[in-house]
Amino acid sequence: VSNFKIIESTLREGEQFANAFFDTKTKIAIARALDAFGVEYIELTSPAASEQSRIDCEAICNLGLKAKILTHIRCHMDDARIAVETGVDGVDVVIGTSSFLREFSHGKDMSYITKTAIEVITFVKSKGIEVRFSSEDSFRSDLVDLLSIYQTVDKIGVNRVGIADTVGCANPRQVYELVRTLRGVLLPTHTPPSKREPHTLIHVRPYGPSSPSYSLPAAILGIGERVGITPLGGLIACLYAANPEYVKSKYNLPMLREIENLVAEAVEVNVPFMNPITGYCAFTHKAGIHAKAILNNPSTYEILKPEDFGLTRYVSIGHRLTGWNAVKSRVEQLGLQLTDEEVKDATAKIKELADVRTQSMDDVDSLLRVYHSGIQSGEL
Ligand code: HCA
């Protein structure tokens, strides 16, 4: 897996999170941090949303970041005219195509959508700016409508197309099928295969299958409208599991925790305990059988190496599920000399106490030291 680019949308989708209010300084801090992490694209709120949004969009474009700056607009010439003046590298254009959105949101039919999409895309392209076209609520849209609109925009030469599971109704199989069908319709228009550029990237929200070339949207901690979007950490965890060396070389992984803390503070939420990678117990091993295997070889129960993310693993031993191998490792760390039989005996004592209440590491260490002195003095 190496045919992907990340579209980081904390500053667009994330601003649609109920708690989010990003002032200019915070937006700049987040944009700089994402750029230092190494995401390929940073997506910003539409400059047509408000005057300050427009000013902030320009300010971020002027930072000279390595990441390409995108903004996200309605499929409307009013928005497109404002967007192209901000200095963005690309414009993500979206319009609802499901009957729900056509009837109850913008009220336009497919022929109007097609006509406007052609106008907007042609205009943005004429300014030498990248353009992506997305159908909102793709999975509740008519397949024939979708294929027809995608073929149309592909012929004009969009850089990417997006499909959005806006309400979260699609299962992975449906996403796979739609992406496959879309590829079948779009790729044959670009020949010959040897010269085939990743011309039209397929932008998939929220799932990210591989090949031919995908842009994967995400936001820090998954913040966004309603329950949000794929969390950047979760996406990175999946990509790393598939191709660790590539992902390590591409992104500054130890920065993940710092960016999550920055955003968590800005939107006043805690980093969830079960957060991928940085959740406080993501690398804590507890049950005796796991602890033993982890101490022999961490790959037994870890697909991610904590050290690649600037994190450390922790083997918890002060509880009733503990095992003597994990206790032995602690005994060695403390520099105590005990035989295996003695460690097993000390483990039984830890379990006895832990049946009453969980023992802290300090409690366990004191017990081991006292036990060790007892052995040495011949009292035990
Ligand atoms: C939105 C909706 C969107 C757009 C996705 C896209 C969605 O908040 O504007 O532009 O590809 O999920 O439908 O996030």
UniProtKB/TrEMBL annotation:
Requisite cofactors: Mg(2+); Mn(2+)
Biological process, per Gene Ontology: lysine biosynthetic process via aminoadipic acid
Superkingdom per UniProt: Eukaryota
Pathway: Amino-acid biosynthesis; L-lysine biosynthesis via AAA pathway; L-alpha-aminoadipate from 2-oxoglutarate: step 1/5
Top enzyme class: transferase
Reactions the enzyme catalyzes: acetyl-CoA + 2-oxoglutarate + H2O = (2R)-homocitrate + CoA + H(+)
Coiled-coil spans in chain: none
UniProt GO cellular component terms: mitochondrion
Protein name: homocitrate synthase
Native source organism of the sequence: Boletus reticuloceps
Whole sequence portion shown: 217 to 596 of 628
